[in-house]
Amino acid sequence: MMHVAADPSQRYKVSKTFREAAAAGLSVCRTWVFSDGGDRALQISPGVYDERVFQALDFVISEASRTGIRLILSFVNNFKDYGGRPQYVEWARNAGVNVNGEDDFYTNPTMKEYYKNHVKKVITRLNTITNIAYKDDPTIMAWELMNEPRCQAVYSGRMVNGWLLGLSGENDFAQMAFMQRWMETHSIDSNRILKKPLVFAELGKSNKDSGHSLGARDQYLITVYESMNKFERTVEGIGGSLVWQLMGEGMDSYGDGYGIILSPHASTRAVISAVT
Questions:
Q1: Within the chain, which residues score under 70 in pLDDT?
Q2: Which of 20, 113, 148, 226 is labelled catalytic?
Q3: Which of 51, 113, 202, 226 is catalytic?
Q4: pLDDT score recorded for residue 276
């Protein structure tokens, strides 16, 4: 949408698309708020924006509002189309940052800062047509942090999840709050929509986390189990849980930071035993 609207002579196409969608009964559109480097770039280089393209985005949002369409806006692409993670990697390398590959996007401080600055720039943008800041515009119903995030280095999703937590401040409080919201929403969906029991799997806390302690891990597990009991009473349908990962003494070489060895850790053993 924004890419098309960057050419004022083509904006009628955006307007027509929204009108036809609304006439067909559609009410939500998902589109980009990224174009990093290349043709009609919104972000020409880190922190440098083309006002002409930003005004095209203003137009897209104003037209959506005019036709009663609400928007889901995505901040960055996983793929090279319209820049995406590969462009962030190129920018970082050009700045002299040592980058191994695209997956460093999730952990490299420079690229994380590029991304956070872009998010801030977009959400605080004052629309030149509606005079409403994007963050206050009811036309925008949701923000999408990335289009189709992928991580080749860690298929389990842990690196991407770590990146997500880091955006809001990666600490125990943030992790706990995210975990509890996730458990509650999935418990409700499992019970009311899927009508199937829900098993929470791969629970754990890595000893590689900053500030890790045995007490912090125990408290994390306690919070998970207390949340499960609460949701079982109010929502029902909790089928159980599985920790990641239970190991025996002498098996440390198989560990990834999440290993739980019960025999030397009486407090952890007591936490787990209390719910079995």
A1: 168-171, 174, 210, 276
A2: 148
A3: 202
A4: 67
Q: How many CA atoms lie within 13 A of 256 on its CB side?
A: 10
**Residue pair 1/32 in contact by the 8 Å Cβ criterion:** yes
Q: Which residues contact 90 (CB under 8 A, 6 or more apart)?
A: 37
Residue appearing with tokens 């189309």: 81
Query: In the annotation, is 148 catalytic?
Result: yes
The two three-digit tokens of residue 152, written as one number: 């080749």
Q: DSSP letters of 97-144?
A: ----SGGGGGT-HHHHHHHHHHHHHHHT-B-TTT--BGGG-TTEEEEE
Among left, alpha and beta (phi > 0; psi -120 to 50; other), residue 39 is: beta
DSSP 34-46: --BSSTT-SEEET
Q: What is the pLDDT of residues 78-90, one digit of tens each?
A: 999 999 999 999 9
Judged on CB neighbours under 10 Å (0-12, 13-18, 19+), 139 is buried
Closest CA to 271 of 203, 211, 208: 203
Instruction: Identify residue 106 by its one-letter amino acid code.
Output: Y
245 Ramachandran zone, left/alpha/beta (phi>0; psi -120 to 50)? beta
**Do residues 106 and 174 make contact, with C-beta atoms less than 8 angstroms apart?**
no
Q: In 170-255, which ranges are continuous DSSP H helix?
A: 172-189, 214-234
> In angstroms, how far is CA 1 from the centroid of its own chain?
23
pLDDT at 4: 96
**Which residues touch 89 (CB under 8 Å, ≥6 apart)?**
99, 101, 102, 104, 105, 111
pTM of the model: 0.67
Cβ neighbours of residue 172 under 8 Å, at least 6 residues apart?
211, 216, 219, 220
